[in-house]
Amino acid sequence: MTGVGANPGFGLSRSLLRLGHQVVAVDAHPLAPGLQLDGVLPHVILRADAPDYSDTMIKLCRNLGVEGIVAGIENDLPPLLELAPRLKGEGVWLWLPDAESVHDCIDKARFHHALARHGIPTPRTWTAEDLDMLPADTPLVVKPRRGHGAQNVHMVTSHRHARLLCELVPAPIVQERVYGTEFTADCLVDRNGRASVILRRRDLVKAGLAAVSTTFEDATARHAVLRTLSAVRAAGLCCVQGFTLEDGSVTITELNVRVAGGFALSEAAGADLIGQMVNGLFGLPVDHNRLTYRTGRFLTHYTETLRVGDAAELARVTASKGAAS
């Protein structure tokens, strides 16, 4: 499980442990929260953009007899795609869409164009080179083109602020701000292209994470999500975000090629999301009958403190656990 310092990878590691799997938790930060989970095999690895990342990952998988890899953060997706043939040769399973699909999703400008080509409603989007085309008196959002975790996302109401932020935000895009009821769809697309979708309202959002969410059903939202999954040829575990507008129409904002931070609600509502993901990861059939869910279930999330202590000592303990494994 990669990227265990972020909420999706952390939560997924916990869920896999509860299902009885041996989890190798890896992250580039030695104090990443997921490395402190009881029961995981913690390993500090290189950043995904490091030159030796691929060789390090192959060596780790070989030494530990790793059977499958699940990415918990977007940064790991491109190098893992390149590694896929070598991983297969080592007997390691990986379940990701094709490279073009992954890049269509992690690049927000490309995602906008992919949805626009298929006539799927999505916010109007401009790159830094298109700022002269920004409409007047329109609330805007400035964000990184390849960002994640709501980092460097800014809401603005003036062109002047948008231009200034485009000089500060890395590889920025500007989008029309959407107002409505925000939702996340937890999705699992099997190897035959059949998708199951669990819809969750994002009732209270803090720093990009749904602190309060509720399951619901809506035919328009479900149809938009399914069209989006098809448009980008999604595969495996992913999540789609969008808004239901006041008139009942739906606008899709993004698709993450990873588990959502709030996926625990889908499981609490009855969907065997992670169990079926594991089946699909290892080439087994996905039972979509086990991916149904109850509406009106809610979840509240709050950050917890895992450890407090001496950083150097904790890093040594983590390193010793990894060496022992």
Rounded Rg: 20 Å
- Provide the spatial order of strands within the biggest beta sheet: 13-12-9-10-11-14
Strand-residue fraction?
A: 15-25%
Let me know the number of strands: 14
CATH topology of the largest domain: D-amino Acid Aminotransferase, Chain A, domain 1
- Output the helix-strand order: HEEHEHEHHEEEHEEEEHEEHHEH
The first-level CATH class of the largest domain is given as Alpha Beta
Distance between the termini: 15 Å
CATH architecture field of the largest domain: 2-Layer Sandwich
Report what the structure shows.
This protein is an alpha+beta fold and 325 residues long. The chain has 3 domains: 7-94 and 305-324, 3-Layer(aba) Sandwich (Rossmann fold), CATH 3.40.50; 124-176, 2-Layer Sandwich (Dna Ligase, domain 1), CATH 3.30.1490; 179-300, 2-Layer Sandwich (D-amino Acid Aminotransferase, Chain A, domain 1), CATH 3.30.470.20. 33% of the residues lie in helices and 23% in strands. It contains 10 helices and 14 strands. A 6-stranded antiparallel beta sheet has the order 13-12-9-10-11-14. A hairpin with a 5-residue loop joins strand 9 (181-189) and strand 10. Helix 2 crosses helix 3 (77-89) and helix 4 (99-106) crosses helix 5. It is globular and about 60 Å long.
